[in-house]
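Explain this record to help learners:
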Amino acid sequence: MDFLLSSALLKYEILFLLLNLLYIVFHMMYETTNFLIRIRNIIMPSKINIADTIKEISKEVEEKNNPANSEEKNQEKVNEKILPATKNWEKVKEELTQDEKNNINEFIKITKTKIARWEYIDAKAKIIEWLSIDKFNKELNLLLASLYEKDKDYKKAELVYKDLIILNDLDTEVYLKLGFILSLQSKYEVAYEIYKKLHSLDKKNTEAIEMLANLGHHLSYFEDSKEFAKKYLKDNPRNMDMLYLQAMNFVNLWSRNDALEMLKKVKVIEPYNVKVNELIDKLNIELELEKNFSK
């Protein structure tokens, strides 16, 4: 009996030692990895994450409670960080010979045809090959990102778009693509900041306004969502989805009469929408009860 007990105790002791050994190995690997990352960041500094930059700057401005010139300050700070990268891009572009530029333009046309024919693997391999010659070429990078999107590799597409924005922070096309790819990954806060930046560059961009209304509502920024929905409905007064979204903004802001007005517009477009009719009835009951209690 004593032998069995001692044998069991020995097994537990060995198991305990093994667990301790695993912990030590894991801790050493973790520290080594962190050390290597720090060394890499010193030797090869990572590129600026434009979305995080914009978000960080926005927070700083809000803390200083100076909304009047927040947009101007945001732009100045972002430009300070982006300008060196932009200069490098222009330098690389100038170093390409005319023949190389012509070959790349011809290749882009061929690649678009390949993508249209679903020859994705060959197209991707060729794009990467040409990017080794002109890695900052916007068309090549956009084609590569589109292939990543088709593969549902949204993270890689996001990185491509971020690099392109670093090279040109005024490119509304890339902001639109980056905002969309972030939304697909449920990175709603960052996507919202990207669309706000896009809206500051192009006040009439309908897609940016629509996404700001939807993302604002999703993030519970109901007041902001209401303003963007209002802008969108000015040019699209019969858009049922936006009318309903605006109604829900008013519901969350306790503006029942305004919500009813929006819902009635939806009902004119789609009179047999059960959800809308039920919400209208619910709001009417609430308004009636409120009226009775206030007497």
Notes: The chain has three domains: 1-41, 81-189, 203-295.
